[in-house]
Amino acid sequence: MKTFLRIIGALIVVCLAALLAFIFVPVQRTAPTEELAADWTPEAGQGEYVMYASDCMACHTAEGGEPFAGGRSILSPMGTIWATNITPDKETGIGNWTLDDFRAALYDGLTPDGRHLYPAMPYENYRKLTEEDVRALYDYFMNEVPAVNNPVEATALSFPFNMRFGIRAWNWIALSDPAGSAYEQSTPQERGRYLVESAGHCGACHSPRNVFMGQDGLTADDANFLKGGEVDGWLAPALMGEGSAAATWPVGEIATYLATGRNSHSTANGEMSMVVEHSLQHLTDEDNLAIAAFLKGEDVGEATLLGTDLALEEAENDHPTTTMLTEAKDLSEGARLYLDNCNACHFVTGKGAPEIFPELAGNSLVTADQTGPLIGIILHGAEVPSTEKRPMRLVMQGYAERLTDEEVAEVASFLRTAWGNDAPAVTAADVAKVRAADSAH
Amino acid sequence: MTDLPGLPSRRSFLKATAAGAALSGLAVSAKARTAEPPVPLDQYQPEFFTPAEWTFVLAATARLIPSEGDGPGALEARVPVFIDREMMGGYGAAADWYMEGPHQPDADPFRGWQTPLTPAEVYRGAIPVFDAWCQQTHGGAFAELDAAKQDAALTALQKGEVALDPTLKDFFSILLQNTKEGYFADPMYGGNHGMQAWTFIGFPGARANFKEWVPRYNVEYPLGPVSIKGERA
Predict the structure, then answer these.
(1) Are A54 and A112 in contact (CB under 8 A)?
(2) Rounded Cα distance, A269 and A272, in Å
(3) Contact A436 B1 (CB under 8 A)
């Protein structure tokens, strides 16, 4: 019996020691993946370019705030996470950070004092950045971004998510991939892969989440990489493989969408419109074509931006839905509402118009399991931002005043079965939910 | 749903469906449109017109677009309601017209709006003068005359045979114009009640695009009109 108690006692001591070590022993930082010469300096504009590719602006700039001065709230089910000030201000920003501190934040999600960042910071992806890009980015933030003294509200999540050491365990799973990268970047597809997997952090939204809420698929070697995820109740559609837009759009169309938020088939909505606005439109044509080539698994070839998808013009328009809307007889309530409200821009073919009105036939937002965005757009409209190559801001009006919940449900359900779309109906209760949630803002 | 297109909230790192569901408790009745029938025309309380003016407007518009014959008349289409609301709006106050001087009310009509008065002031000033002229010429205020005398009085007004101050001389032309507007404008402005005028002339309303009909010849368009607010007739 005594022996048994002694064993139990010893086990408890070991467990306690392990727990304390788990909580208090500092986490190892990942070393630089490449030794650069001490006097290595980035080329002019290189750091800013990495910043654009990484979309730092999106999270670290508050609405109407100074660039990178933090203070933007990021809603999560565990509470609000406040994006930090990453200007070189010594008091409230990262002015005291060394290059190693900076790299540790990007690669390991660690602050200089060893605290864990919440994985709202996509360090799962940024840890794939090359040392050159890390150095260039550091140089940009230290020397080109103006310091802004802006204390940001500290993130205070509810228990147990406020126990940041718990993220250490999460990181064991999430960061199992080695940091840094041995990326070849000599062909466009290789360059595209690097951008997608590292700076672009596309997987943060477009890969599904595993049971630990980590990205299920960090690189193209993983089966579920970019097979579709969900963000804020929106479907982040699959970007690779069967059923993805990349499978049907030519390389040039994909690149055009990335650079301008629009192409012959669709427009960028929700989170993606902001990615286009703050990040992708600033990339070179070569890089957007490279990303497209990687996603599609095809060479760039003769593809260019802003071309016209000839397949669209040659498409047959004799689908039964098109015929029914053209005849305008024996219409269901949803079809009648479509003619009265939507047809002016999206047309009886459901194909809309290139670079202006998105196609509704085969549109993943229309047929998504997440019906909130479709309902939200019918109620409140949508907006595509102005981009350098396509400056016209596109605006769809909302129909919240014009249509009742029942009518929105009818028209949404019609869209989800029209022109070969095949998704379950939307109910008036679904619409009421979205309307109430939005008016509670 | 926690974000709208164009209203950025930030991407969250975990699935946020629970957040959307939590908000649904706030659901209220979300009926977007109310379809209460309007008060009958004879019980309508005008906002701009005095009772005497209102009596005139009812009688005059009823002669300009009569109820007998084909199609709805001005009264069925509630044209007087449209004009009453129009007088209270920007048009009645000439809100976006150049109204500084110099004014030359007796200028050639082709010189446009030359009176210092707003359209609302023209109605206010001209109706009693015209009623007095009817009294003197036909033995009763306009609304009290029979249809033939009303038509004769309006014809005289149109031809400039009623002695109006030059500042009021556009009265008939704006009365006729506003009557047509009230007859054919979208019903959201109070006239064209039930889109009767559109139905009568076969106008399909605010459907905005008929591209698929361009190449279809000699095919009857099967749908009735739709209004800006989405009502059908």
Answers:
(1) no
(2) 6
(3) no
Residue of A nearest to B22 (CA): A437
* Contact across the interface for B23 and A437, Cβ inside 8 Å: yes
Q: At what angle do helices A131-143 and A99-108 cross, to 10 degrees?
A: 120
d(CA B233, nearest CA chain A) in Å: 12
Output the tens digit of pLDDT for each of chain A's 441 residues.
677 677 777 777 766 766 766 666 667 788 888 888 888 999 999 999 999 999 999 899 998 999 999 999 887 777 888 999 999 999 999 999 999 999 999 999 999 988 888 888 999 999 999 999 999 999 999 999 999 999 988 887 777 777 777 777 777 767 767 776 678 889 999 999 999 999 999 999 999 988 777 888 888 888 889 988 888 888 899 998 888 878 889 999 999 999 999 998 999 998 899 999 999 999 999 999 999 999 999 999 888 888 766 666 556 678 999 999 999 999 999 999 999 999 999 999 999 988 999 999 989 999 999 999 999 999 999 999 999 999 999 999 999 999 999 999 999 999 999 999 999 999 999 999 999 987 765
The type of residue at B110 is: F
Residues B59, B61, B64, B66, CA torsion sign: negative
Chain A CB within 8 Å of residue B11 CB: yes
Residues 6+ positions from B147 with CB-CB distance below 8 Å:
B63, B66
Report CB contact under 8 Å: B13, A213.
Answer: yes
